[in-house]
Design a protein that fits this description.
Helix 1 packs parallel to helix 8 and helix 6 packs across helix 7. The protein has 9 helices and 31 strands. The chain is elongated. By secondary structure, the protein is of the alpha+beta class. Strands 1, 22, 25, 27, 28, 29 and 31 form a 7-stranded mixed beta sheet that branches. About 7% of the residues have low confidence. Helices cover 21% and strands 32% of the residues.
């Protein structure tokens, strides 16, 4: 008996538990999912730094320029009336009270730094706008609160200084468990002092493309067509951060049985062979393996003859087979219904969903959910053309798949009605 689309997705998303946690070097963690929260190992920034190129100054103007500080150098303490040229990102010397931007100052022939006339009005206005501001000056690694004296200094206290701990303090939680490791996460983790990260193991996926009629390259010829699903799902799976292997087998149950039984993957995905035709062998092979079907047909269009089965593995970590239909858009419907929710669960990634209003009416099916390729424009979704089960043209233009519930006696959802949108 077929399962409703919503129930099939729920079954797939709860059929597994997350794979074990491990620690991997930062360079290998992209696309994986944090198994633990990530806390700052140091203050960010770890010390006060200059936000601009210019001069770090202490005390009232004018200032005697005593040297230069570049990023990565350890500066000497500044006394009142002193300044050092400073680069963006360089450590601010202890005793410094502000940074004077290069375009707002000048050094005279005797080595004295002055505030440029055209910047005085700007800086006086800034000082008056925030007279209550105090500045945490750095002294011998400790933080000492100083009384504002911006009018004496010639510019507001703390100007263009990034204080120590401005972004986060040591021990502060930066990211929660379940966050995907993106390039930005890698940058944050490196800044926070990490060399490796606690993540869930990557799911291992074996993609088995079935069909005598499929060619791996060249133009379609005679009765053969190009394999569209292998390239598409390989790229899609890699984008999900899993390890992927791809194989092609003929319409022979012995070959399919060998491909599934010999795979060490957490999930085997087959394309084609899930219906009841003369060369549809997936059900027979799963029975020979002793697999248990948890989803066998879904009331969705396209994609009805999809399936999900458990077999082998351990009590804690079962192995799975997802059987997708052979028609391309139907296969994609199976992918977003049973494959992606299962992989998110194995990866330790929380499920997400978002809803948008329809920009135009879309037809319903009396008893089945429809998954309709749509484009997102101006915070609404518009159904696209070329969306038959064997077509990919509409999907290639799509931003997502709109989930259109069974209509019963309603033949269409009207513009403005909100629908769930699955990203593709």
């Amino acid at each position: 008996m077929s399962t409703s689309w919503a129930e099939a997705r729920k079954i797939a998303g709860t059929a597994a538990i997350p794979l074990p946690a491990t620690r991997v070097p930062m360079g290998q963690a992209r696309g994986m999912v944090l198994a633990e929260s990530l806390s700052a190992l140091v203050d960010l920034p770890p010390f006060a730094t200059s936000a601009m190129d210019g001069w770090a100054v202490a005390g009232p103007a004018a200032w005697k320029v005593t040297g230069r500080v570049l990023a990565g150098q350890e500066p000497s303490r500044l006394g009142d009336g002193e300044a050092v040229e400073i680069a963006t990102g360089a450590r601010v010397p202890s005793g410094a009270e502000a940074v004077l931007r290069r375009e707002r100052g000048f050094v005279d022939a005797h080595g004295w730094l002055h505030v440029a006339e055209n910047s005085e009005a700007h800086d006086r206005a800034a000082a008056v706008a925030a007279p209550q501001r105090s500045y945490a000056a750095v002294a011998n690694g400790a933080t000492a609160m100083r009384t504002p004296r911006g009018t004496e200094l010639g510019l507001p206290i703390g100007t263009d200084i990034r204080p120590q701990g401005q972004e986060s303090r040591r021990g502060e939680t930066l990211l929660s468990a379940g966050a995907r490791v993106t390039p930005a996460v890698l940058g944050l983790a490196a800044a926070a002092g990490y060399d490796d990260l606690p993540v869930h193991e990557r799911p291992r996926v074996a993609l088995v493309v079935i069909g005598d009629e499929l060619a791996g390259s060249g133009l379609p010829d005679g009765a053969r067509i190009r394999d569209a699903l292998g390239p598409m799902f390989t790229a899609w799976l890699e984008a999900l951060g899993v390890e992927v292997t791809v194989s092609r087998v003929a319409d022979d149950p012995r070959d399919l049985l060998a491909a599934i039984a010999s795979s060490p993957a957490d999930l085997v995905i087959t394309t084609g062979g899930t219906a009841r035709g003369p060369v549809d062998h997936v059900h027979r092979v799963l029975a020979d393996l002793g697999a248990r079907l948890v989803v066998d047909g879904v009331t969705v269009r396209p994609g009805h003859p999809m399936l999900l089965a458990q077999y082998g593995g351990t009590r804690q970590h079962r192995r799975f087979v997802a059987g997708l239909p052979g028609n391309p858009l139907a296969a994609v419907a199976g992918f977003v219904t049973v494959v992606r929710p299962l992989l998110r669960q194995l990866s330790g990634l929380p499920d997400t969903s978002h809803f948008l209003p329809l920009g135009d009416a879309v037809g319903t099916h009396p008893t089945d959910t429809r998954l309709v390729p749509v484009s997102v424009t101006d915070a609404s979704v518009l159904p696209l053309r070329f969306t038959g089960p064997a077509m990919l043209r509409g999907l290639a233009l799509a931003d997502g798949l709109a989930v259109v519930p069974p209509g019963g006696g309603v033949v269409a959802l009207g513009a403005g009605q909100r629908v769930e949108v699955l990203t593709v």
